[in-house]
Each structure stands twice: as structure tokens, then as C-alpha cells.
């Protein structure tokens, strides 16, 4: 009987402790949704450099390209001697805002491990370059 009371007391304590750490219990506002990404404008056939989380809206097309994240990066770091150059793989969200269609594409900085370009919404999106720290990616949308 004492073991049941102890277990019930521990369970009640855990529920209160978890609730006390939540944003609702602490009086902090709960965000409705994440903030919209910063958006830059580009024209078809023009290179555009996107910062991590930034989106490019393509003028004259129902197309937006958002730089989501670095999936992997095996590139040689500055001041290091490497046997091969390595590659970075980046994830992009490609969307047609007017139609509500979207897909995620992984593009590679070199041809060894995967595609450097993809097609979406009758357009071609190509990864041109990636900054050393991976915080900026230059893409060509055509």
C-alpha cells in the first residue's frame, strides 16, 4: 500500500513539474506559428544569394525558393590539406504559393553525390555555390 502511495505521489509531482516548465504555465505567450522567412526578389535567369532561412520570390512566376538547411558538408575546411574537395548538400523548399504546391529538394555543391539542379513548376533551380560556413547559398533560377 505504501508503494502505491509513493508511486502516485511521484506521478503527481512529475505532472506538476512538467507543467511548470511549459510556456503556458509560466505566463509566456505561445507563438501561433513560426515567423515568415525574409524574402528577396529575383528574376528568372539571375543568380541570387540566400541566407539560411531566407526565401527568393521569382518575379513573373508562381515560384519561391527557400534555403532550409545544410544536410551534410564534407568540404575541406580552410587551412587544411584534403585528399578531395568534398561536397555540401543543402535542402531547399520549392513552392508555388498561388497553387499551394511545394516540395523539398536536396542539391549538392558538386556532382559526386547527387544533383546540383532540379526542376519544379516549369523552372530549373541550380545550386551555384555555398559559403565556407554554409550560411549562404547562391542559386540560379531559370
Description:
The structure is a single chain. This protein is mainly beta and 142 residues long. Helices cover 13% and strands 42% of the residues. The chain has one helix spanning 2-20, and strands at residues 39-42, 46-51, 55-58, 63-73, 88-96, 101-108, 117-120, 123-130, 136-141. The strands form two sheets. A five-stranded mixed sheet has the order 1-3-4-5-6, with no helix packed on it. The chain is extended, with a radius of gyration of 23 Å. 16% of the residues are buried.
Describe, in short, the structure shown:
This protein has 142 residues and is mostly beta strands. The protein is 13% helix and 42% strand.
Name a few traits of the molecule:
142 residues; mainly beta; 5-stranded mixed β-sheet; 4-stranded antiparallel β-sheet; 1 helix; 13% helix; 42% strand; extended
Please report the total strand number as a whole number: 9
Give the C-alpha Rg. Answer: 23 Å
Q: Kindly state the mean pLDDT as a whole number? A: 84
Structural class: mainly beta
Instruction: Tell me the span between the first and last alpha carbons.
Output: 73 Å
Helix content: 10-25%
Strand content: 35-45%
Biggest β-sheet description:
5 strands, mixed
Q: Spatial order of the strands in the main sheet?
A: 1-3-4-5-6
Oligomer: single chain
Number of helices: 1
Spans with pLDDT under 50 lasting ≥5 residues? 20-25
What order do the helices and strands follow? HEEEEEEEEE
| General shape | extended
